[in-house]
Amino acid sequence: MNAIPTLFQRRRLAPLSRALIVAVALCAGPAFALSPPPPASAPIYAGIIGLEESFLAPQHWIAQLPNPDAVILDRAGIDAQNARMRQLDNSIHDLRALPTTLPRAFVAEQINGISRAPTRTLYDVQGKEVGSAQLKAVTDNVALDRIGDNRPIQYGLVVHRAALRAFPTALRVFSSQGDTDIDRFQESALFPGDAVAVLHESADGKWVFVSSERYAAWMEKRFVGVGSAEQVFGYGKAAAHRVITGATARTVHTPEEPRVSDLQLEMGVRVPVLSDWPAMTPVNGQQAHASHVIQLPVRNDDGSLALVPALLPRSQDTAADYLPLTQANLITQAFKFLGERYGWGHSYDTRDCSGFVSEIYRSFGVLLPRNTSAQAVSPALDRIAFNDKDGKSKRDAAIAGLSVGDLIYIPGHVMMAIGQSNGMSWVIHDTSGGSWFDASGKRVHASLNGVSVTPLQPMMASDTASYIDRMTNIQRIRPQATK
């Protein structure tokens, strides 16, 4: 019983009060600049220094690789890597290790770790200050006083993409007036088929506090179906399945079964295929020859879990298994998100910087922690660490040695290396914005606000410190024997 807290020790986003202090530092506003100013001859495309239009296609980067289709880790290697992640990284939650009843102190500890009362002024979408009475109603809905001495564990499957929130509320709150992108109550998201442990329920009965393998927070109760451990952990174990390999995919529209109609599935989501479905038997009113018959979880009216057939059109970007982990595939998968809007904590049905790299790697079956704070220091990965005493030579040498797919971390942000062009290292990353100096030395600001391709060396964390100066870690997914 004393070992239970170790299952959920490490928070991946700062508590709200701390997050408000650091404002938008966590994946929210990477700035990049040139110091000194670039030569006047440096190419500029769409306002980005050094960029050429050809750089916005994956073929440009793949063509530079001497062996783009070489397998970095095979399936056995990925399974071993994921086993290390589950064993060594405290940010990964072992749901099946939970006891059948949870002590009140443990449940309260998990909730208090994320549902901390705000200490700074917050504003709503209209720019009005969120009053103390409104905030008190939000915090009261947490209902810590309703936690029983021993909470029976419940398991469930997520049935629809669902926001994970710091509090049981849909209220969107912001640190400043006019900034309505970064909702300080938004934490992350879960996707159809994700397994969760249900730890608590809100006072209004509309929210549940859940833990998934990678995150613990509040989600709407209507998006989880509660079932037995056998149902939940047995889902998706069938031999036949499809893996979503596009940025997203959607099931067909079906009025007969609206619970699985037009359902958005994210990159890397793995769904079982009902391979023995009779060819002439319709699925929700439609013959299945042009689609894959898949099985999806749904929530019944009483909250219980059920599994039903659905159609996933063959036109959607999916594969019969996780993709081979190669440099060509890493680039191809990353570029499927190019131009997608930045979504803090997976807002807007999109994703943020750490979600972006997680979902790329998930299409290969590779497990990563949810947030940059955990990804950057994970002991399960091949890590190169930097501190304030590491000088230019060590940092420049590390940048020169980057391989496609390497993850580069600065405080609150992650970028993925894609190659070299125009004498610079290049990255693809999900960022809200940036700035740089043009040839005249004028600082230019851009609201990139999405998945973007940028050079690495010009990026500046401040007027005097570059991203390379602020680099804290490089993480690599590669054979353990190379460590």
Which key phrases capture this entry?
483 residues; alpha+beta; endopeptidase fold (from Nostoc punctiforme); SH3 type barrels; 3 domains; six-stranded antiparallel sheet; 18% helix; globular; disordered N terminus; NLP_P60_dom
Describe this structure in words.
By secondary structure, the chain is an alpha+beta fold. It has 3 domains: 4-8 and 92-233, no CATH class; 16-75 and 323-482, endopeptidase domain like (from Nostoc punctiforme) (endopeptidase fold (from Nostoc punctiforme), Alpha-Beta Complex), CATH 3.90.1720.10; 241-319, SH3 Domains (SH3 type barrels, Roll). It contains 11 helices and 28 strands. The strands form 10 sheets. Strands 21-28-22-23-24-27 form a 6-stranded antiparallel beta sheet. The longest helix has 14 residues, at 75-88. It is globular. Mean pLDDT is 90; it is low at 1-40. Belongs to the peptidase C40 family. Keywords: Hydrolase, Protease, Signal, Thiol protease. It holds the Pfam family NLPC_P60. This is NlpC-P60 family protein.
